[in-house]
Amino acid sequence: MLIPKELSKRTPETGASMAIKAIVSYDDTPNDHDALMLGRVLADAGAELTLVYVRHTTEIESAREQLEEHEAEALLERGARTLGDIPVERRVVVSGSTADGIRWLVQEEGADIAVFGSEYRTAAGHVQPQKSAQELLEGGPAAVAIAPANYRSEHATRFGRIGILAAPGDDAAIETARGLAESLGARVTRDEPHVDLLVVGSRSEAPSGHVMITANAENEIENATSPVLVVPRGVTIRFPVALAAA
Length: 246
Fold this sequence. Notes:
This protein is an alpha/beta fold and 246 residues long. Helix content is 31%, strand content 18%. The chain is built from six helices and ten strands; from the N terminus they run ββαβαβαβαββαββαβ. A ten-stranded mixed beta sheet has the order 1-4-3-2-5-6-10-9-7-8, sandwiched between helices. α1 (30-44) links the parallel β2 (21-25) and β3 (48-55). The longest helix is centred in the N-terminal third of the chain and has 21 residues, at 62-82.
């Protein structure tokens, strides 16, 4: 059984205990800079961010292991600086798989959202779940957010429309979209083809608290040109009400 190992210490927690927690998967690749930008949007909506780098191996030699650990922490420090003055926790985790490492940290932290960039070959402006995100879309224990390729260059600061793709009666997805729209000063729509963020509900047979999507939702995600937030079955992501940007 794989048991990920935490290498860095947690910084003291700040903010309200009920704050939304978003974990951003980050390895300093261009598409993970897209995830950083989406993390910034979620922070603007009231989420607390944790930037995580998943190492896949450890070194036998102590000196080499210390060097690898230092390089991982420096990588996260660079990512945190990209976010400017947004408070961000940094974690280094060791796991044979990025998805398993993120899953473990989500459960360890009680996180609400795992944030990813798109697959590295994705055309700019389009969404394609990378392998780690895809695994968490198939039974993961938290919402999954995916940024379009090259989102880092969009500098998205205004949100007018929050789209929703959910079955009638999917209160979790509907209320998540409404709360996010209120926090960002946007409105919810089901009919407009171009939105600033798409909230997707999980399929009706998904276990409560887990993410699973229909084939139709998978197609809609891959056709999306905005960030996507997939909500677990029966779990509303409650963003705090914030003053809308002028």
